[in-house]
Amino acid sequence: MASNGSSVLKMPEIKFTKLFINGSFVDSISGKTFETRDPRTGEVIAKVAEGDKQDVDLAVKAAREAFDYGKWPRKSGFARGRIMMKLADLIDEHQEELAILESLDSGKLFHHNKIMDIPGAANSVRYYAGAADKIHGETMKCSGEFQGYTLKEPIGVVGHIIPWNFPSIMFFAKVAPALAAGCTMIVKPAEQTPLTALYYANLAKEAGIPDGVLNVITGFGSTAGAALCSHMNVDAISFTGSTEVGRLIMEASARSNLKPVSLELGGKSPLIIFNDADVNMAINVAMQAIFFNKGEICIAGSRVFVHEGIYDEFIKKITESLKDWVVGDPFDSNVNQGPQVDKKQFEKILRYIEYGKRDGATLLTGGKPCGKNGYFIEPTIFTDVKEDMMIARDEIFGPVMSLMKFKTIEEVIEKANNTIYGLAAGIITNDLNIANRVSRSIRAGIIWINCYTAFDRDCPYGGYKMSGFGRDLGLHALEKYLQEKTVITPIYGSPW
Ligand code: ADP
């Protein structure tokens, strides 16, 4: 049982803990399991099958057969779309249970899961279901003797490697366009958050997605994930996670069959607040940019540049605003920030807070764990941050803001771009010329003007520089799961 402020939620029974291969839940061949834990307390929620290379081999075999001989890639896009619509409806029917499981496993806020993540996942499925029958090639007139056309064909067997910060959203950001394209697939959810992925596998079966089309292998990155990336029979990898692992994935592809990979990686995104900004609005945006999802989000606005004209006012007011920010049980609807996903992440964030202090930044607020149990950390702000400090350079993936002052637009553009990453940026200003100039000058894949963390399934999402390449969301995402075949034929009979 857990209270969410107004009502008492019944904790669901954990029904799905085995690997999902070729339409059945099965134990791992080794018989091994791993524990998934509740980050509120560190207690074990369930033991989940630990898949490794041998299980990946079985899942790839099933996906390969389903692709080479099965119905899914050969169905009309319309027919695939109808089955996907059914899956979306099933997700809606199980919304509360899924939202609870997601919070239990990840520490994400239950009310966010209920109104955003789970309905967002279902709507992603609907979006791509609607696109499934609108995948077309082109016709080419050629030189007159010949005509050419292209076919957009599904790329084949796809491996999806999913992170733990948005387990449901990321699952369907990858699975839904791949299903629409007619691919078959193996999903490797993050070891920290395997529960909703297995639940979705069951719903996919119930919706009528044929056996072998969607397989889920729970397990660790260095074993199951690596086996998928180096598999000769996997035709593409779609990955979201750290830049370090992204590099390993490219290496695995290069060493095996040169499968195309798309990588959505880390970030150290700037939020730039100009002196004409409404300071109260800017503070709301800045807090949302870094503390949303406890800072466990790759687009986190972790470097906040504030114009010197409003800097002192900004600091005073954000310190005040943080007094109302509640860290606590993610099932309580009054809470703004739940626990970090696990002990490793909790310790990493605390380590970075120590680096910040050691390197001479000033701790304005927070900086400590909170609560007796679990992995809760106070929202933390550092001022007097210098660009070369570790807290200003590295992705922390936690609720830690580095505040910096700036004077001129040229200076702030240079500082904002002074990072290996290029995932996102935010600009707060009412001056259209500034907004236009800065948004074109920042090398990042997504720019928010007078907002932050606003996503839409119709807007492509992905990075520049070492934040990766390839786009999730939008119709662009379909391209990752398609390949183009050119067909050329004579118009007036064969000249040969
Ligand atoms: P984090 O460091 O934030 O946990 P990771 O990049 O390590 O993020 O993890 C993201 C996903 O990548 C997880 O599903 C994880 O299991 C997987 N992963 C980790 N290492 C590898 C690897 N060597 N090959 C393939 N997948 C991996």
Structural commentary:
Keywords: NAD, Oxidoreductase. One of its GO terms (molecular function) is aldehyde dehydrogenase [NAD(P)+] activity. Pfam families: Aldedh. With 496 residues, the protein is of the alpha/beta class. 37% of the residues lie in helices and 22% in strands. It contains 15 helices and 26 strands. It has a seven-stranded mixed sheet with strand order 16-19-20-15-14-22-23, sandwiched between helices. The protein has a six-stranded mixed sheet with strand order 11-10-9-12-13-25, with helices on both faces. Helix 14 (432-441) links the parallel strand 22 (424-428) and strand 23 (446-449). Helix 2 runs antiparallel to helix 4, helix 2 (77-93) packs antiparallel against helix 5 and helix 2 crosses helix 6. The radius of gyration is 24 Å and the shape is globular. The relative contact order is 0.14. The mean pLDDT is 96.
Query: What coarse outline follows from CA principal-axis ratios?
Result: globular
* Rg from Cα: 24 Å
User: Which compounds are bound in this model?
Assistant: adenosine-5'-diphosphate
The main β sheet shows up as: 7 strands, mixed
Strand order of the largest sheet: 16-19-20-15-14-22-23
The number of E-state strands comes to 26
Q: Give the integer mean of the pLDDT values.
A: 96
Q: What is the helix fraction of residues, given as a range? A: 25-40%
- Oligomer state equals single chain
End-to-end span in angstroms? Answer: 77 Å
Structural class: alpha/beta
Would you identify the regions where 5 or more consecutive residues have pLDDT less than 50? none
Binned strand content: 15-25%
The DSSP helix count reads 15
